[in-house]
Amino acid sequence: MSRHILMCDPTHYRIAYEINPWMRRANAVLTAEAQAQWQGLHATLQGLGVQVDLVEPGPDVPDMTFVANAGIVLGKQFVPANFRYAERQPEAARFIRWFEERGYEIVRIHEPHFWEGEGDVLPYAGQVFAGFRFRTEHRALDHLDEILGTPTVRLELIDPRFYHLDTCFFPITDGLAAYYPPAFNGEARDALRERFADLIEVPEHDALRFACNAFRVDGTVVVNTECDSFTAALRERGYRCVETPTAEFIKAGGSVKCLILMLDAFEGLPSAS
Ligand code: ARG
User: Fold this and answer.
1) 254 C-alpha vs ligand 1 centroid, how far in Å?
2) Which atom of ligand 1 is nearest to the CA of 253?
3) Is it true that domain 4-272 has CATH number 3.75.10.10?
């Protein structure tokens, strides 16, 4: 879990190109609505006691509000992403500058391999889960394993609508996680079933509303609206759900978790101690 995160306001957010099945240039973002939704999420997280740092958005990088893809943070080290698409690559320098200015050491994975930060690499209870295929390359994870000092649990993604791990998998706590099974190949489904005693199967309706792209703070889960089966499953297990609208961000293929980069979540790994 994380109590210290980075966010980036959506001043320059728009659908300027199409790099996943959600994005259509014709489906324009309603700018005021996006601002209101992002401010709502920001206020919700602060209200839950999360410390939110901000990185400045840039006019040339309309997807930068999806900070989850910036990289991962290991203590005072920042491992920057190597974005798959040229359209997002200019974000890297902006994120690296932000971390450098705050005294972080920049540790890079091999440049020839693509990977997209917390979009595909998620920590949970001393383990790290890594999705690959659409954005992150399997080979990139070899080097990431060395940096992390522990082998990532590799999960192959097979549905292009769920192109990042954080769109279809949500590690919660104490043997509890949620996932959308059809987004994974058989081996990945088995790997998840082995590791979680209680694995919530999110139905397609909720998965398409980015239910798995949620964020937990203590006993509260922050999630997009109208993920009713998912929130019912969480409430049954004693969680409180805060539903916050993110429809304008779903137009670009992202929701709650995509708008967050955790600054303190990889603690407890050999590399971060
Ligand atoms: N439009 C962005 C892209 O395709 C959305 C990124 C969503 N981020 C995430 N962590 N799933 O790269």
Assistant:
1) 5
2) 5
3) yes
